[in-house]
């Protein structure tokens, strides 16, 4: 019988510039004042987001000046190497491992471009073996953290002796377009932030040591790609860089599609929704969290870790669901034998589900 891989360590990190929502709103008022219609309430999105603080890799004032795409991307590479290296090192230390113990690195990001890819830079900086396998994943957006964990599980399932390092990192701030007065750009300015998470996944044959956080058995995963929804979320790209795309229909899609797709995934694993003690969901925004609660008939307190991460960090795209998972692990809320589903939505329009169980 095959033994499932386990998540044995998880760490998160944010860049140094902490900004408060009121300060971002005041700058946005100045930037967009001449472009907004008199009486427009578009800037109310800053108040309604229920975000108090976010972290950025550049000073707030930098965002509200025009920068060429090349400058934005150079900052992405520089900061990704620094932040990604720091969070990866933290995860290794929590697992009691060195970089030379890692057999496979999975790097997930969608907010910048690099060739060699960022995972190559991290492997050099961390001191990984020259035979380490690398899988960079680009374009999954907010679903990337859950998808990266699922792929790390796949690699550890294929090689039960492997230790896999996952790094999910986004620098959303560097994609902000200060001369774009579209509603979607203003909403993005009220939501998105920077952050990184790293996880260590061990194959079933790896002897697990006692860890400060409870290990999680990675039982199964599922990817969903809904038809004819390509325009719901993503980027458009031009000479100025990356321009955010997301539809106001996302909460409606969550209400209509999440429950049946999640129920089908659990049914294939011999479970029902009521058998799952915890939903570890990506906090894409308060409207999305409310839609999750409605679709799955969850009391608001069932999503309090996701709301708290949104409040304290904003929407960091791919690493956000791993920040939420860290809250669960830090509180030891996923007890021995408890089942949980990690869930995130992304471009495609798509969903990623990972079924986990608390180890004894």
Report the total helices. 11
Strand line-up across the major sheet: 5-4-6-7-1-8-13-12-11
Shape: globular
Order of helices and strands: EEHHEHHEHEHEHEEEEHEHHHEE
Write down the Rg: 20 Å
Total beta-strand segments = 13
Which class of secondary structure composition applies to the elements? alpha+beta
Roughly what percent helix?
25-40%
Q: What is the makeup of the main sheet?
A: 9 strands, mixed
Secondary-structure map:
Layout: E1 6-13, E2 17-20, H1 21-32, H2 45-48, E3 53-56, H3 60-63, H4 69-95, E4 104-109, H5 118-126, E5 133-138, H6 144-158, E6 163-171, H7 183-191, E7 194-202, E8 216-225, E9 233-238, E10 241-246, H8 250-268, E11 278-281, H9 286-296, H10 304-313, H11 320-330, E12 339-346, E13 350-358
Parallel strand pairs: 4-5, 4-6, 11-12
Antiparallel strand pairs: 1-7, 1-8, 2-3, 6-7, 8-13, 9-10, 12-13
Helix pairs in contact: 4-5, 8-9, 10-11
